[in-house]
Amino acid sequence: MALGTLSTQTEAARAFFVFGDSLVDNGNNNYLATTARADSPPYGIDFPPTHRPTGRFSNGYNIPDIICQQLGTDLLLPYLSPQLTGQKLLVGANFASAGIGILNDTGIQFVNIIRMFQQFEYFKQYQQRLAAQIGAEQAKRRVSEALVLITVGGNDFVNNYYLVPFSARSRQYNLPDYVKYLISEFEKLLQKLYDLGARRVLVTGTGPLGCVPAELAMRSTNGGCSADLQRAAALYNPQLVQMIRGLNSKIGSDIFIAANTMLMHNDFISNPQAYGFITSKIACCGQGPNNGLGLCTVASNLCPNRDQYAFWDPFHPSEKANKIVVQQILSGSNEMMYPMNLSTALALDSMTMT
């Protein structure tokens, strides 16, 4: 119901802001000198209407796109896009950048990427631009009534702690202490988002990091998922929910909603056939074992039907898998969504918004 009512008020449809990494980047990295980009074929092969790459790490739509469709708003533009002006500013913006993590030293091999502190600087800049257009009071309200999505954390394991044997962070911390450190740093980021005016924030956990085709190809444990990375995800996700519970109670309101993306992915990773996938172990696009090595390029193996694969490339889910995840975010049980799912939050918000 809530979604129906929201999408009919397109004039007043709420703004949407996205922060995070390659799971949600809509093309900011296209504007940067970095290797962490998805701006060449076959990326975007199913993206309508052009079937061309956009900078999304997907064969088609990514999670923010599918949420936009559910909200009944236009797809977000990357913040660095020169087209993000005028009326388009009212829709919101995507600040995400592939390769980044909670920590500033995550993804250093990608050089020029927009780390979290810089994404927040851009959010401040965005608010100034919006205020110049619609006035400070209206801009503040637009931000406070917006939906915000933040997806970050996976790279702090994959592109930092476990990037190379004996990485600096793995020498500094054992895994449980590293997870605690990450959670405490993430809490600071969420507090900062609140201070910047965000009042309805969807926070995703990490997926089953050890089961992506890249890790099956490189660090598989007895032919199965990587035990190290699975242990990392199993420690991190419950502590994330705990941290969010604490933060909400400190603020005195359910601002932050935790999405247990590990559980959501586990369903189709352990039982791909139930979701119409033929495999969750092999990427559609890639090379080597599990199509899990290197990057997805024109020279890679490419599956003819992307909807049969849970993974598009060695690290990223296919559009179809993204749709399943968004469905769970919208209507998942309390086990998946704490303290409520997105449909419930939107219904509550539509009662309080005038």
From TrEMBL:
Entry keyword set? Hydrolase, Lipid degradation, Lipid metabolism
Identify one Pfam family in the record: Lipase_GDSL
Q: Which SUPFAM superfamilies match?
A: SGNH hydrolase
- One GO BP: lipid catabolic process
Q: Name one GO molecular function term.
A: hydrolase activity, acting on ester bonds
Entry-linked Gene3D superfamilies:
SGNH hydrolase
**InterPro entries per UniProt:** GDSL, GDSL_Est/Lipase, SGNH_hydro_sf, SGNH_plant_lipase-like
Q: Which family does it belong to?
A: Belongs to the 'GDSL' lipolytic enzyme family.
Q: What protein am I looking at?
A: GDSL esterase/lipase
Q: Look up and give the organism this protein is from.
A: Castanea mollissima (Chinese chestnut)
Species classification = Eukaryota, Viridiplantae, Streptophyta, Embryophyta, Tracheophyta
